[in-house]
Amino acid sequence: MSGVRLRQVALVARELAPVVADARRELAVEAEPFADQGVATFGLHNAVMALGDTFLEVVSPIEEGTTAGRYLERRGGDGGYMAIFQVEDLEAARARIEALGIRVVWRSDHPDIAGTHLHPKDLPGALVSIDWAAPPESWRWAGPAWTGGAPAHRAGGISALSVQSDAPGELAGKWAAVLDRELSVEGDTALVRLDRGELRFVPLRDHRGEGICELEVAVPGARPHRCVMGGVDVVVVPTVG
């Protein structure tokens, strides 16, 4: 595992349980989701579900005045909230973020994992976090089973994330600079290809404004279909190979 990859996506919901139930049904999630007590610091409760060796998180406010709660109000309901990227060289990524003038709103460093949340006014479109893990297949944010290594898990996972914007090319350029990746354009879509995963920046599709609008998830043995989950369009595709 090297370079940069999309490792986790979070949805924000007014009610946690219904969105988690939808995700487990549509994405064939068998393992019990992990509830991270640490997110109470942000006035939230959550559920983290493994999709291959990537993760879908659902967060919901349990207090007034949370950042997630304000996001729910601003976007008019449930929706995409956060994109977490795993990098191989954390110090280089942090130096690049500082050089770009992007503020850090939260930072957490542990021997086996580190997280760096970026200010959404400096990097719009979602709350973006640049993280690192050792060993790289581990992911403490997903619970004890993923701490210190990776358990046996199914194939598949989150393969693409789409963000809608009234200026998709400009927004894609900002994300590409943070992630140190090239930007390409196909029609009205700006693309940032990662070592694992792809980011797609598209024109506004609805009245909700800038934000995560679609996920593509590969699921073993899945019937190709589309659904809406926590206010986000989800494209389910079968795994290849």
Describe the structure.
Helix content is 17%, strand content 41%. With 241 residues, the chain is of the alpha/beta class. The protein has a single domain, classed as 2,3-Dihydroxybiphenyl 1,2-Dioxygenase, domain 1. It has a seven-stranded mixed β-sheet. The longest helix is centred in the last third of the chain and has 12 residues. It is globular.
What are the salient characteristics of this protein?
single chain, 241 residues, alpha/beta, 2,3-Dihydroxybiphenyl 1,2-Dioxygenase, domain 1, seven-stranded mixed β-sheet, 14 strands, 41% strand
Could you give the topology of this structure?
Elements: E1 4-12, H1 16-26, E2 44-51, E3 54-61, H2 67-75, E4 79-87, H3 90-99, E5 104-109, E6 113-118, E7 127-133, E8 157-165, H4 168-179, E9 183-186, E10 189-193, E11 198-203, E12 211-219, E13 225-229, E14 232-238
Parallel strand pairs: 1-3, 4-7, 8-11, 12-14
Antiparallel strand pairs: 1-4, 2-3, 5-6, 6-7, 8-12, 9-10, 10-11, 13-14
Quick overview:
The protein has 241 residues and is of the alpha/beta class.
Molecular shape: globular
Helix and strand sequence:
EHEEHEHEEEEHEEEEEE
- Please name the CATH topology: 2,3-Dihydroxybiphenyl 1,2-Dioxygenase, domain 1
Low-confidence stretches: none
CATH superfamily: 2,3-Dihydroxybiphenyl 1,2-Dioxygenase, domain 1
Ends: how far apart?
Answer: 19 Å
Total of DSSP H or I helical runs spanning 4+ residues:
4
Major sheet, described briefly? Answer: 7 strands, mixed
CATH architecture: Roll
- The count of strands amounts to 14
| Mean pLDDT over the residues | 96
CATH class: Alpha Beta
Tally the structural domains: 1
Radius of gyration: 17 Å
Estimate what percentage of residues fall within beta strands: 35-45%
Helix content: 10-25%
